[in-house]
Amino acid sequence: MSRSDASTSERLEGARGLGKVFSRCRCDAETWLALLASVERAPKESSAVLKTASPNARVGEGMRDWILSVGDALMRAAKGSEERTRELFGMIDERLDGGAGERVVGLTLLDAALGSEACSMTNDDIVLAVHKALTSVSTAPVENGFACASVGMRAVCAAARHLRVDDVRTLRTAWLEPRLNAQGFTWSDSDNVRSTLSLIEYLKIPRDERLGATTMSAFLMADLELVGYVDGEEFKRKVIHGAVDLDSADFQALDGSERSVGKTVAAAVIATQMNLMHALYVAPGLEVGADDLQVRVARESGRILCGKSIELLRIERENAAKRAENAQVKVEELTADVNSSTILGVLNHALTAESMKIEESERAEVVLWCCDKLSETFVSASDDSVRDTISSGCASALLRLAESSEEVAISEACMRCVLALMDLITVKDTLYDFVEVIALKTPSLDLLGIENKLEMDRRAAFVVAALNWTVSRVRATATISQAENTLALFKRLFELLSDSEQGTWLEHFTDVYAAAALWVGQIEKDVSVDTDRVLADAAAQNCVESFDDASTGEQLKKRPEWLKNLQIRARWLKEAFAVLDRDSTLCACFLTDLVAIVSKSVETWTHGSVDALKHANFWPYQSKNRFITPRIALGPGGVLAVSATTFELFVELLERLLESRGSPNDDEIETCMNEYIGLVFMLTRTVSASTAAGIAIKTPGGTSAGRVALGAARALFSVAKCLTQVNFAVRSSDAVSKTFDRDLIAQVKSLLAVSNEVEQSKTLDAAPGAHRRFFAASRAALVRAISLTEPDNEDIKFELDKIRKRHHSKRWTEKHAKVEKRVVRPSAAPFASREAQPDDFIDEDGVSILEAFEPSTDEETDSEDEENDDEAFVVRGMTDCEEYNRTGFTLAGAHTDGIANTALDIAKKSLELIDFSTHDATHPRLGVVDHVSCHELRGERDAGAALARNIGRGLGDQGVPVKLYGDAASDKVGLAEIRRRAGYFSGSKEGRWMGDGGLRELAFEYGPSEMSSKIGFGCVGAVPWVCNYNVPLTFAFDAGVDADERMRRALAFGRAAAKCVSERGGGLPSVQSMALPHGDRVEVACNLLDMDVTSTADVQRATESTVASINAWDYLGVGSTVRVDQGYVTNQTPESMLEAIAALERGN
After folding, report:
1. Would residue 923 show up in a list of annotated catalytic residues for this protein?
2. Which residue spans adopt a coiled-coil conformation according to this UniProt entry (predicted)?
3. In terms of Cα–Cα distance, which of 551, 854, 834, 578 is closest to 716?
């Protein structure tokens, strides 16, 4: 059974089981009603009808299997009950008169009922049922009429085995033949043996006047199935030896679209011929006890069967990418109607029959065709069919060719077919019989004395022997695709082991997967193709990011071979890592082996020296586990590709340790630091290896360099978080020595040093700009994490003081003295580094008139001990009356009520003093209370949104129209969008805004629905904290340029610089910027959305670099100059806010 959709498979198996249940027990009234009600679950919309009823529908799609199983169960439950039988067929009868969807469901139920073993209807009743089915098909709506025809013909064929010969003959001559003849379908007898179907007359009928090809295919298929009941000779001429005239000159003269339609019909005919031949001639000869005549007939019929499969294969190949316009399906999908047992018969004869004289390349095509049909089309095959395939020697032949064939195509095809066969097996005994065939492919010590073992032990021994065979095949494979198939077989066999046996095979699993990833195929060639290509920045970025997605099928086929190969190698390493089941020590040992291989490889071709045991005491070097056995040294390309994946695995393990450790207590700190030291040491060696590989290649390609930049950056961010976590834990503990983390800090500094070397070399030169900037940001994050470890660092002393004060307070002591509880260390979240996440809720303005935020409250704070908890205080008020003419307040408090009340008091006074209609400034604004943004220091954004809505409601009561944004808004609209719609950025060329709100169809959440010119309106929202940083630009012009012209030119230059600095313009990640006039200068006003990604120092350097790269004379005129001055922060940081809160608590 296909494993592509486990839930679907389980549902279908459950559905099939219904019939078996009712064959063993009686159905009570409640169950009967439930079965009838379940029919209503069948979808009846157009798309579902196609999947459920069309002969080309893949088995298991739609609800066809479900309806057939329920119909069989209903028939079994109604057996012996006239009332229930009448009720069942009454329900079917109602649906046969409905729309297309209802008719398809009714006809499918009729098909199930007539084909059920419990069917005991009289011949007259069946004739009546067939008559109703044909009437339903004849009068079906035009839309999806062919679907009704398809399922209707299936029901008729199911009824045929119960009908008298005369009734079947009448059915053909009175109903089917007139319809086929009317559409131009005729069979001609070219001799006494063969009949030929001509499609020319059908294809001459104008398309809008003829029935669809799929409808006619359904009629032809039914006619071929029914002819065997009435005329054996005609059956042989049409089914055994019959052909479709596709090679005639008249057919070849048709245009391409008409030939495509004809091939669709031909495919349906050949599929039906194959099914009937296998069922009536081939299968009986494979049964136990078959006589010599049956065996000879089966052998000859198998030869014909294989010939027809080649015909079908060629039709698919010719029509592979075309869609038959009138049939609405690809021709290869129509072959889904070939039964799985038929495909197995083709496979069996193609590989084992001596009479099959075909070329090896053609044999490979047949095997691949069978594999596609078995793995993609069918959900299941009968156990008898699979057992026949195993016992006939077909499975053994597949394994032999997979192992020994010199033709790569047939070797790969056979291994794929082995996998498909294994997926079809649903019976345990058959599965282990198949495993035994694999195990016996090579002599193995595991099989000594196998005949004397118990059944369970025998099976385990066969699995182990089969695993050893697949391991040898992986080591012998020469291509990625061969290894892919063999590893898939290895994994299926591995899953058959017991839990304890899997534990002993872990090292074999990781070794075989890693060996394939590192040494199968030509990894150097794949990397060199990337190096030789010159990819645009966006194309290289897409290639890098494609390693993270889970694309399958057609998307993967479109990717170049070298990229697919590198992605497969990366996936193999990740699968080997994943099998270690989140055991941190085992995962670290696996990484140790990977790092040793890349380091030793560098040593080999640089003739350097890498001492793998230099730090033997580092975790986990003392472990005896070896998960990868080294073979040969990797080249520079291999080192680069493997290092990129290794970085990803480091990130996964570091994040896992961070999650599991949380905030380590005193007893855990030593273990935690040992783990981090070992991982950082290995990461340092990997970065050094990447640098050496990049130097050897000279300039790695954009994809390889981008993968290294992205993976290393993520790893550096994780290390920064680990260092911050340990630093907090050590410095807030009185029990742990403050010098205990020196080794970790030393290792991190070594990592930073080698990371600087990567950037200084040409390793990352071809990487996409976004990934290079991300790598630079990660190094900056690591620098900041290291700086926090300094004993006198003021940024975190206040937080530590607060922790110690709480831990030694009388209230805390009484609360925790009698309860043994793990001491939870303070979260390092305010200082943690993370990946860049651009935020749409913040816009490119410098400062806000009013900014309010709520720090997260400590769960151990007792309001009874804090007298002023409900009061907010002003941490900073910034006023610029000369140019910007605005004041920004940053408020902090322990509770939201105090912050909201203070904010509303400030707003009330502002509304009393300021008339917006006469307000003049160079800074844009929308109202007197222009902007209120609420933030939280520890990321609990729901409370921030509640605070914003509370303030917005209060402003509305004061007469201010309020527009919510960010987390506070129901539609999560961003501040930028509101400002653009309100004309925020549409000031004059001189940069002055004259109190114009520019309202454009904004619906306010609070306050008046109309905006007053004296008040304007305000934006209130909840977003992550943003740092506002302005960089002044000072200009010098010739004396002849007047003041207005100077400002115009300066603004033009400033806007060009601001665009280059911002993320939107291709500059720094998580930065938004705009140019604002400020006196006789212009400032590049920036919002830093994530200080862990881009710091103020990064903005300062980027602005200086950008200004230096712009030709100033193009904007300012000949002889003019510009100077970048030191920037300044216009608001507060989360750290300074926490410090202010701590100071207030100490004062209280």
Report:
1. yes
2. 310-337
3. 834
